[in-house]
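Much of our argument rests on the idea that a fold can be written as discrete symbols. Part of our work consisted of pairing the sequence of a single chain with a tokenised description of its backbone. The amino acid sequence and the backbone structure tokens for this protein are reproduced below.
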Amino acid sequence: MTTLTHAGDTLTRNALAVLQPGFDGTTAVPDWVRHRIDEGLASVSLFGRNVQTAEQVARLTAQLRAERDDLLIAIDEESGDVTRLEVRTGSSYPGNHALGAVDDTTLTREVAADLGGRLAACGINFNWAPSADVNANPDNPVIGVRSFGSDPDLVARHTAAYVEGMQSSGVATSAKHFPGHGDTAIDSHHSVPVIDVDRDVLNSRDLAPFRAALAAGTRAVMSAHVLAPALDPDNPGTLSRRILTGLLREEFGYEGLIVTDGMDMQAIAGTYGFERGCVLAIAAGADAICTGGGPSDEGTVLRLRDAFVAAVRSGELPEERLADAADRVRALAGWASMSGAAERSGGAPDTGIGLIGARRALTVTRGETYAAPVTEAPFVATFSPLPNIAVGDETPWGVTAELERRLPGTESATYSGEGSGSQALAAAGTRRIVAVVRDAHRHAWMADALQTLVAARPDTVVVEMGVPQSAPIGALHIATRGAARVCGEAAAEVIVAG
């Protein structure tokens, strides 16, 4: 590794300041992270790999804070399906789609404040949430229940409520994914999605929640690796000066931090190259580079640091643009430090607001052949699609654990692909069947499995934990609008009570 400049100079400090890297480990901060903080690194990010318990995270962040008391410590904690703080158990809070279905902004504000308090108690002061995307495409493979809904006005008012609630706890929010990731059928973790609608549609639909987030005072906005030709026909949002500087800064008058979505995602790294993509993002107007979801080593940080320094020296990246970006990162770190979030420690009390919200979000439909409540140990057949990268495959979901707790002896199995319904029927025997699905409308094999089960066993209970687009089916159909742990708990209560 060739170091292009001295560790203590302003250019290098600014190059490190714009990075938000991750690292491995749960108990000790790596020496290389400590060294880079001393040399100017102003942010770090935590992921599921860094989390065991809330108390453990608090101890880890205390080590980080000992190196720099105004360090930004970021996490991707949306609640609902996307949780890092409760990656091993499932979230104690319903996600956006459930909150949007209730449509009580006071509840959304209270949930966000409660979650913010929990993050603050763990020493985390920057959350890459909420999703402000309008889920305009029901086949969207990556947003779905992460969105408050498909109505722009609803999404806007709940985005604002979430921002207000979380930032009242001293944790900065980052409305995402600007200028909108809701009307896509492609996941930007894999390639560049295109939102091919005119500017009027973007203004009235996709951009409305971001204007609401700005009005509510969000301290950060996260860019999307999405191409919106009506705004910029050549560059995705993260790399577009027209979108980040022209639209967000100049037209909307936004002065806060702009952070990128993960730059190791294939929409950027696979199209433009990792290092070059990061340079282009800062040049376009981004201030902070999210890099830690995949690569989490010292070499990544050094390569990116040197790429910024080289780009400044070659004239590709104006030095004043890099300095401005670094100053915005430090400004947010200063706000977070003054907010007091970093001074809290230990666990936060469980107020129960998450379960209250999950219960209110349920839609329960009793079929014509409605059967009695499930009072004996059932067979739970979970039909599992391939998880998207944002959600991951570490976090448990479904209703099995909650039904086992209520009905000891509950048996379960997970299925995927053609023939799943017949396999589940054979495994269930004479037991009552509870079928659990996620976005059945997007998976033909899953819809077929449900039809097979209900035709053979009309007393089947169906729990839809994704976006409920398909018509209700089964003796009892429960739409939870998310797969958080509390959503499973709320569904189990209904299953046993009828």
